[in-house]
Amino acid sequence: MTTKIPMLVADTQCALGCILSCGEASDASNGRLLLDTIGSIKDSPEDSPLYLVMDRASEDGETRLLAFEWGYSPVVPPKKNRKHPWEYDQQLYKQRNEVERMFRRLKGFRRIGTRYDKLDLMFSMYIYLALCVIAFGSLIPRSVNRL
Q1: CB within 8 A of 88, min separation 6: which ones?
Q2: What is the pLDDT of residues 19-71, one digit of tens each?
Q3: Cys staple from 6: which of 30, 86, 120, 136, with CB 3.0 to 4.6 Å?
């Protein structure tokens, strides 16, 4: 069974949330579900905008509207075949690699990379455990010897 893990990442060391989905499921619909689960993380609408950097698979109008509703400013390039493309911040979009680096760190955990667990509950538990290890590992100064 193939599994996708839509994930909302703050930076290379911190994931805000993730959900499991079937490999055949759409990234956009699961991304909207994750966005509804997370909701708004801003205290007030007057704060500086929070950017939501997404890939082209999530660039449909419904996902962008949901991001605007929750107070995020979506940064996503339009698909090539769009009749009315929009402008986006290309420099900010380059930071999308932080999500890819977070997935690379997760796949470094053998149990997650090879999907040993058959139950979604156990697989999710190990993903969250790995995310905790990654987050706590970022708190240790680089000068300290790591095992």
Answers
A1: 75, 76, 77, 78
A2: 777 766 677 777 787 787 777 766 655 667 778 888 777 777 888 888 888 88
A3: 30
Whether residue 115 contacts residue 130, with contact meaning beta carbons closer than 8 Å, is answered with: no
Asked whether residue 147 is assigned to any structural domain, the reply reads: no
Number of domains in the chain: 1
| 122 within a domain of the structure (yes/no) | yes
CATH number of the domain residue 72 falls in: 3.30.420
**Model confidence pTM above 0.85:** no
Strand 14-18 versus strand 72-75 pairing type: unpaired
For residue 146, being part of any structural domain is answered with no
> What range does the domain containing 46 cover?
3-137
CB atoms within 10 A of CB 5: 17
Rounded CA-CA distance 34/49 in Å is 19
Are the C-beta atoms of residues 53 and 95 closer than 8 Å to each other?
yes
For 126, phi then psi, to 5°, come to -70, -30
Q: Which two three-digit tokens encode residue 42?
A: 């801003």
